[in-house]
Amino acid sequence: MTTEPRVDEGIRDLSIELPSWAFGNSGTRFKVFAQKGVPRDPYEKISDAAQVHAFTGVAPSVALHIPWDRVEDFGALAKHAAEVGVRIGTINSNVFQDNDYMLGSVTNPDPRIRRKATDHLLECVDIMDVTGSRDLKLWFSDGTNYPGQDDIAARQDRLAAALAEVYERLGEDQRFLLEYKLFEPAFYTMDVPDWGTAYLHCMALGPKAQVVIDTGHHAPGTNIEFIVATLLRAGKLGGFDFNSRFYADDDLMVGSADPYQLFRIMWEVRRGGALDPSAQVAFMLDQCHNIEPKIPAQIRSVMNVQEATAKALLVDEAALASAQAAGDVLGAHAVFMDAYATDVRPLLREIRSDMGLDPDPVDAYHRSGYNEAICAERTDGAPAGWGA
Ligand code: RM4
Ligand code: MN
Predict the structure, then answer these.
(1) What is the dihedral of CA 368, 372, 378, 382, to 10 degrees?
(2) Which one of 150, 197, 365, 376 has the fewest beta carbons within 10 angstroms of its own beta carbon?
(3) How far apart are CA 206 and CA 365, in angstroms?
(4) What is the pLDDT of residues 79-105, one digit of tens each?
(5) What pLDDT does residue 387 have?
(6) Across-strand partners of 285?
(7) Ion ligand 2 — residues with CB under 5 Å?
(8) What radius of gyration do the chain's Cα atoms show?
(9) Model confidence over 41-71: pLDDT tens digits?
C-alpha cells in the first residue's frame, strides 16, 4: 500500500482497453512507413497487446475491428487471447471502406446499401456473442460534402432506423457505443457530428445505447470535460476513445498533446463516479503509431492515462468543495492545480512494484527481448494494416 490509499485503489481499479489496429502498420494518406516485426494477423496483434498488459498490469482487453480482424473462428481467437493473458473487448464495426459506401452506409440514399451496412452491424453482434464482448462501437463516416447533396433530416431518419434495428438485436448484457466526429471524411455534414446528435439517438433507444467520446473528434478549443460531465450526469457516457490531437484527428498518444486536458477529463470522470468499474465506462485507446514503435507507444499511452488518473485522484475533494461553497475562486483553483502539479510517477512506480510489476514498464519491455523475437520471427507474409 502506498501513502495515498485513494490513488492506490483507483489506479488498481482502472482498466484500459487496447485497439488491435494500433499494432498494425498505419500512416497518413501520404505514406505508410512499414515497421519491422509487425503482426501479420489478429492472433499476433493480440499477442502484442498482451505484452502491454504484461508490463502495465492494467490493459487486460483488446478491441477488434471488423473486417480487419475477421478470422474463421472467433472462439479460437478468444481462446488465444485467454492463453496469452488478455480477453477480447469491444467489437468495432467498419462501414467506411467498401466502395458501396461512397455516399454513406446506413444513411445512404440507396436502400440496398443501407441494408448491407446494417447487416454488417448485426454481424458484429453475432461476433460479440462468440467473443463474449459487451460493447459494439459504431462509428459512421457518413455525411455529405456539398450543400444540397442529400436531405440532412432524411439521413437522420435512416440512421435512426438502422440504430433501432441494431438495438433490438443486442443481448441482455450488450450495449452499443455511438461515436461522433466533427468532420472527415465528409466535409460539409457528418451524420453524427457531435455529442448532442449521438445523445439524441441514444436517448430515443434506451439504456443499451451509450455515447462514446473520441477525444480527437472535436473542434479545436472544445471543452471536452464539460461534455464528460454532462453525459455522466445524464447516465449516457459509455466510454472513451483516447488519443491526442494538435490539429484534427491526429490519433497521437493520449496525454502527449495536452496532459492538462487529460487531467481535467479524468477529474470529471472521478467526480462523476465513473472510475468505479460498476459505472461501466470503457476506457479505450484509439491510436495509430505511424513513426514510433507500436508496443512501447501503447505502454506509454497506458502510463499517461494512469498519470492523469492518479492526479485526478489526488484532488482534495473536501478542500475543493469547501472552497467552492465559500466562493473562494483562487482557493478552489489552487486545490485543483496542486493535484495537477504533483509528480505522481514515484507513486505509480510504487504501486507497480506492489503489483509485482517492474516499476518501469517501457524499460522492462525493451529488456524482455520480445521485440528482437518478433523481428526475427515475422519476416514472411504480409504485415497487418488498415484494410487487412
Ligand atoms: C475512426 C473512429 C473509430 C476507429 C477508426 C479506426 O476515426 O475513431 O473509432 O475505429 O477511426
Ligand atoms: Mn475512435
Answers:
(1) 100
(2) 376
(3) 43
(4) 999 999 999 999 999 999 999 999 999
(5) 67
(6) 242
(7) 214, 241, 286
(8) 21
(9) 999 999 999 999 999 999 999 999 999 999 9
What is the distance between the alpha carbons of residues 152 and 143, in angstroms, rounded to a whole number?
Answer: 9
- The model scores a pTM over 0.85: yes
Q: Name all residues whose Cβ lies below 6 A of ligand 1.
A: 21, 65, 92, 137, 139, 179, 214, 241, 249, 286
User: E strands within the chain?
Assistant: 16-19, 61-65, 87-92, 135-138, 143-144, 175-179, 189-190, 209-214, 237-242, 282-285
Q: Which regions of the chain are under pLDDT 70?
A: 1-3, 387-388
**Phi-psi region for residue 251, left (φ > 0), alpha (ψ -120 to 50) or beta?**
left
**What's the grid cell of residue 282?**
470503457
Is the distance from CB of 122 to CB of 169 less than 8 angstroms?
yes
DSSP 259-277: HHHHHHHHHHHHHTTTTSG
The set of cell numbers assigned to 378 is 515475422
Contact 177, 211 (CB under 8 A): yes
Going from the C-alpha of 195 to that of each of 24, 55, 114, 267, 311, the distances in angstroms are 29, 34, 23, 19, 26
20, 211, 214: residue to mutate for ligand 1 pocket, most atoms within 8 A of CB: 214
Mutate to test the pocket of ligand 1, among 92, 135, 217 (most ligand atoms within 8 A of CB): 92
CA distance 357 to 349: 9
C-alpha cell at 217: 473528434
